[in-house]
Amino acid sequence: MSxxxxxxxxxxxxxxxxxxxxxxxxxxxxxxxxxxxxxPPVVLVRGEGSYVWxxxxxxxxxxxxxxxVSSLGHRHPxxxxxxxxxxxxxxxxxxxxxxxxxxxxAERLLSLLKVPGRVFLANSGTEANECxxxxxxxxxRTTGRKYIVAAENGFHGRTLGALSxxxxxxxxxxxxxxxxxxxxxxxxxxxxxxxAVSQDCAAVFLEPTQGEAGxxxxxxxxxxxxxxxxxxxxxxxxxxxxxxxxxxTGHWFAHQHDGIVPDVLTLAKGLGGGMPIGACVGLxxxxxxxxxxxxxxxxxxxxxxxAAALAVLDTIERDGLLDHVSEAGRRLAEGIAAIRHPLLxxxxxxxxxxxxxxxxxxxxxxxxxxxxxxxxxxxxxxxAVRIAPPLVTTLEQIGSFxxxxxxxxxxxxx
Length: 414
Ligand SMILES: *Cc1c(COP(=O)(O)O)cnc(C)c1O
Known about the structure:
Order of helices and strands: HHHEEEHHHEHEHHEHEHEEEHHEEHEEEH
CATH architecture of the largest domain: 3-Layer(aba) Sandwich
Bound molecules: pyridoxal-5'-phosphate
Helix content: 25-40%
Number of strands: 15
Radius of gyration: 22 Å
Strand order of the largest sheet: 4-10-9-8-7-5-6
Strand content: 15-25%
Number of helices: 15
Shape: globular
Number of domains: 2
C-alpha cells in the first residue's frame, strides 16, 4: 500500500501530502480571493474531536468551532456516516421533489420546539433571516404595518435584507440606504423597545444574546417584556437563534431559558455541524404567512445537509450533550472568573458560548498569543475574546485551556 493510499484510508490526509506549505497557501489565498476577509492566520488541514491540525502539523484545541458551527467537533463518526451515506444515496432533490431527510428534520425541529409550526429550509443563517424578513414584510402589508424594529449592534447577516436589520453602522452604512424602514433600539432596554414598537410595527428582530457584538446577554426579564410588547401591539417577535441554538447554551434553543415562545425563529450555524444549512420556523399562525410561490431555494432542504442536521440532533440527545454543555460552560465561566489578571475584566455568556472581557482593546493580541500556545479563540470585538468550542469538548480540555490562559494573557501584557 502506498503511503498516500494509507493516509487517505485512515482519514489523515495531512498538509504535507497536499504538497503546499502554509506560507504558500496564504500567499495564493491573498492573490486569488477578494480582500474582504484579509488573510486568515492559520491553514487548517484536518480535525478530530475538539482538535484541529494546521498545514505544519501543529495541533490546536479548537475553542471557536468555525464560529459556533462544528457542534460535534471534527470528524464525528455520526456526522461522517450520515453525510457519506446520504451523498452516496441521493445528494440533491431540489424543491421540485420531496426527500425524506428534509421531512424528518422539519418534524424534528418542531418537536424540539414543542409548538406547532412550519419550517423553511435554507442554506445559511443570512438566508434564514431573509425568509423571516419576507414573512415580516408580507405580514406587514396584509395588516397595514409599516416598519421593523431591530437592535443596535445586532448582527443578522450580510445580504441587503439581512444587512438592513444589522445594527452595526460600520458594516451597514456604506451599503445603504435600504428600502426598508428599520428602526434601531438599544439592546436590552425594555422601555426603549416599548416606545419603539407600535401597532404600525410589523416585526421585532432580536438575538437572545448578541453574538457578534461580543456575546452580550440582555438583562433578566428582557425577553418576557419583548414578548409582552409584541403580544400587545401584534408585532411578530422574530428571534435570530442562528448562533445561540442547537445546544450552545445548554438548552436546544436559548429562548427556552426565558420560557417564552417567538413567532418566528431562525437557525443555522451549529444545526448542520459543519454542513451548510439554515432554517426559518414560523410558529403558530406565522407558519402559514407564505402562500405557494412566495419563497424558495434550489438547495434548501438538501438531503445531505438535512441528514447532517439530523445526526447532530440525534447525537446531542443520545449523548446528553445539553447537560454536558451546561456543566462544561459553568466550569469554563467559573474558571475564567477566578483568574486574577490585569488584562482580564471578567466573563459573560452562558453554556459553551462565552466572552472573556478584557480591560483594554487587546483581543487580537490575545487571539494570537492563544494560537501560539495551541488554542484557537476569536477576537470577536476589540475588547472581547469569544470562546465557543464544540459541544463535545471535554472537561479535561477545558481545564487545559484554563491552566494556560493566565500565561497567554501575560504574554500580551509583557
Ligand atoms: C452568523 C450569524 C448570521 C449569519 O449567518 P451566515 O450563515 O453567516 O449567513 C446571522 N445572525 C446571527 C445571529 C449570526 O450569528
